[in-house]
Specification:
globular; 4-stranded antiparallel beta sheet; 4 strands; alpha+beta; 71 residues; single chain; 1 helix
Length: 71
Amino acid sequence: MNATETAKLQSYLQSKFNNNMLQLARRPKANDSLEVMLGSEFIGVIYKDEDEGEVSYQFHMAIIEEDLPAM
């Protein structure tokens, strides 16, 4: 993804989650996805999907059970 696209997505996520600590970073070996960072912590990946001229983005976030608070 190019720099303009990355900036638009980052701005959208920061606004949607009301959190300016969300940052997007390019992945060295992948042109169709970006890493999602919360501060210095990796939290997920955004993938770009182009199908029949339409573009969409998918945000994938894995949550490990051991990271969840005990109840």
